[in-house]
Amino acid sequence: MFLTFDGLSRGAVYAAFALALVLIWRATRIVNFAQGAMAVATAYAGFEVSAATGSYWLGFAVAIAAGLILGAVTERVVMRFVDHSSPLNGVVVALGLVLVIQGGLGMIFGSEFRPAEAPFSRDAFTVGGVALLSRFDLFVFAAVGIVVVLLALLFTRTHTGLRMRAAAFAPDVSRLLGVNVSGMLTLGWALAAAVGSLAGMLVLPTELGLHPNAMDIVFVSSFTAAVVGGLDSAIGSVLGGLIVGLLLSYVSGYLGATVAPIAVLILLVVVLLGRPGGLFSRSAARTV
Amino acid sequence: MPHQPPSDGLILHDISVRFGGLTALEGVSLRVPPGRTVGVIGPNGAGKTTLFNVVCGFVAPTSGQLTLDGRPLRPRPHQLKKRGIARTLQGVGLFPSLTVLENVLVGESDRDRAEATLERCGAASYRDEKPAALPYAIRKRVALARALVTDPRLLLLDEPAGGLGVQEIEELGELITGLSCSVLLVEHHMDLVMTVCDEILVLDFGKPVAHGTPDEIRTDEAVADAYLGAAA
Predict the structure, then answer these.
(1) Label partner for B159 (CA 20 to 30 A): which of A212, A281, B82, B147?
(2) Element (H, E) at B56
(3) Which residue of B has its CA nearest to A164?
């Protein structure tokens, strides 16, 4: 039971991070390999503010706001100018961003691990002698749940969300209808980076701690979650995150932590072989 | 005297477009007066869609000027709506993941207006359907509603009759005739063009070969050679 709740808690973070990847993929067909480094950068800003003011929540708000700004700036200053004639171009630029951000963070904050404060106890409640989940796990579920609901409402109930969906699918047609496609792209990057920042603030207070490379392993698991769920499916990314979280938890619990990354890799290969579009993607039409 | 805004409609003056060594349009001049319907016809590759793309800003003219109601038009696609221009696409171009109503709402946030426009175009009963589930003729109607919902002063219709049956084309003709805005129509279906247009411009290899009323175009020998003759 503990492994299940632990897996769901980790999976919720992967789900949020995978959702951030999917938001950008759907809008630009770019896998944002810099998402982890961007999340760490905003987490540094947040925890610095927390340390200076003594308020975790102020730091939390600063990290999310920094995510919004960093995402928008990244799109406006860097990604907008990427030549999209080859899909590799965006990937190469994103990988370059990873190096720049991680190198910059190392120069400013150093490369040693620093503890990250959790706002709630991480000690699990026990029922009948069985450890279940902690207050921090509940906070993770609530935060990710709220974000998923808010994003769902944005995309299905607002005119801005409708225009973001239209701009992502057919930018030229959307422009003809008066949609400011570049503005929608900037907003998409800002939202995705903010969701990534949230994931960082939720996962770094666990055993990871603050470090320029701290989100690398989270990125791998979350990328797997996004691919498992389907890079075009927001719901799929959330479910994929929960699946990867549970898999990691069970494998770590029963077979040992060192086997867990292999299990994730096997899951990725199996899904790519059996259903390359992801478990929750719609079947693609085939032209014959 | 209150200031009356000029209402010259759309004027294209001596427009040329070259792609490297290929001349897509050469010396094309055209006026679409307010409330009138002007057709552009010509064989495939004559430059009709390029002309639309110039008006929409997808293609920059190599030379020539465009004005809309007396003001220079330097179109950028996302600003067309502000200038009162709407366009339908040859291939319908609906968003497949959005419902019919959502497709119309992309260009106009007023739900009542979107529903009223769908009603006007005869597609209201499909408002919650996805485009892929609809007959082609209904998708065409939705595309027209999506353009009309912005209440344009100038509507560009790119082959709206393509893929439609005789009855559907008649209904489309009635709909176009009932519009109060200016219409620039690119179409291969001659009966529709001759029925709804006040003037017709004929292009061949990017050059204008004739311009006049439908009756004048019907009897023009250059047109017969370039287009109608080829079709016969």
Answers:
(1) B82
(2) helix B48-56
(3) B106
- Domain B1-83+197-232 CATH superfamily: P-loop containing nucleotide triphosphate hydrolases (3.40.50.300)
Token pair in block for residue A224: 């797997």
Query: At a CB cut-off of 8 Å and minimum separation 6, what does A222 contact?
Result: A13, A14, A17, A18, A21, A35, A199, A241, A244
Render pLDDT for A150-188 as a digit per residue (tens, 0 to 9).
999 999 999 999 999 999 889 989 998 999 999 999 999
Please state the ipTM of this predicted complex. 0.83
Report if residue A283 sits inside a domain: no
pLDDT at residue A282, rounded to an integer: 66
How much is the pTM? Answer: 0.85
pLDDT, position B2: 43
C-alpha distances in Å from residue A77, one per residue of A114, A130, B78: 30, 51, 21
B107 touching A, CB under 8 A? yes
Give the sheet arrangement for strand B10-19, strand by strand. B22-32, B10-19, B63-68, B71-72
Nearest by CB: A159 against B58, B97, B109: B109
User: Mind spelling out the 3-state secondary structure of B112-135?
Assistant: HHHHHHHHHCCCHHHCCCCHHHCC
Instruction: Please answer yes or no on whether B56 and A176 come within 8 Å at the CB atom.
Output: yes
Total structural domains within chain A:
1
Q: Which residues pair with B12 in a beta bridge?
A: B30, B66
